Amino acid sequence: MHMGLQFVLIHGAWHHAGHWDKVIQELERAGHKAYAPTLLGNEPGALRINYSLKERTQHLREDIVRRNLTDFVLVAHSAGGPYAQELAQLEPHRIRQLVFLSAFILKDGECIRKFCLDNRLGIPKNERVDRSPENFLFPSKLPLEWWHKAFAHSVDPETRKALHATLVSQGGQAFADCHDFKAFYELKVPITYIHITNDILPGLPGMKNGEGWHPGFSSRLGTNFKVVKMDGDHEVMLTAPTSLARTLVEASECQPQTILKKVDALEYQDPTILKKVEATEFQPQTILKKLDSCEYHGPTILKKVESSEFEPQSIIKQLVD
C-alpha cells in the first residue's frame, strides 16, 4: 500500500512541465508520487501558444481524468493559480488539498490581464503586453536582466542564463479571460498558501516590503487557509527544488485528513485510535496545533507514527501530550 502523497504540479507563465523535474525527483525520493502536466500552448516549440483559460483547463482536466488521478494535492505556481481554481471547481472530488505557491488567486470575474496593463508586474516599458484584447501577448521571452531581478535573483549569472534559456513563449489570451470563480469560494477543500519570503516581484496588490503575493493574493482566501513559509525567489522549482519539495510535503502532511489517514493505515488498524482522534477532546485542530509547534513538526510526528517504536495505543498520546 502506497503511504506517500500524490502531487499534481501546475506551472506558471513562460514555463512547462520540465521545470518541475528536480522537484519531482525529490518528492519521489521521499516516497511520494508527482505528475506535472504542460498547459496547452506551453509545450517547447509549440506552433500555437494562444488558448483560452477554458481551453487550457479543459485540456488539463481531460489529462487528469484519463490518468485517473484522485486524492491528490494540487499545487499551482504563479500564473498557474487560476487553472487550479477552475480545476477545483470542475473536479473537487479528486482533490485532497490545494497548495498555492506564490500564485495569483483571482476574484470572481477577474483576470490576470489587469495586473499587467498598468504595469504592476514591473515589466520594462518596451516589453509590456499589448493593450489590445485581440492581440494580448506576454513578452515571448523575458529580458534576462529583468527576469534575474524579478524572478531568479538567488542564483549565479551562469546558472541564471542557463535557466532563462529554458523558458518558452507565453500566449496571453488565457490571461485576458475574465472567469466565473464563484464556486471556488464555496469549496471545502483544504488550502495552503506557500509564502516565499524573498519573492520580490514588484507591483502586486497589497504590495508592502516585498510581500505582494502574501498577503496580496493569499488574503483573498479569507481566513480558512494555512500559510507555510520558505526562503527563495519566485523560481524556487528551478533555484531551490530540494527545499521546495520538502516544503510541499510539510504543507500537505500537516492537514487533518492526512494525519487521520496515516493513523488508519493497514499497519495500524485499531478502532480505538480513530475513536480517540474523532472524540471531542482530540479534535483534528488540536492535533494540528501540536504539529505546528516547534516541538512537533508534521514530518517528525508522521515518522513516529510509522515507526515500530510507538504502539498504536501510544500514537494519540504522542500527538496530544
UniProtKB/TrEMBL annotation:
Protein name per the record: AB hydrolase-1 domain-containing protein
Pfam (any one): Abhydrolase_6
PANTHER family in alphabetical order: AB HYDROLASE-1 DOMAIN-CONTAINING PROTEIN-RELATED, ESTERASE_LIPASE_THIOESTERASE DOMAIN-CONTAINING PROTEIN
Origin superkingdom: Eukaryota
Matching SUPFAM superfamilies: alpha/beta-Hydrolases
Residues annotated as domain AB hydrolase-1: 7-171
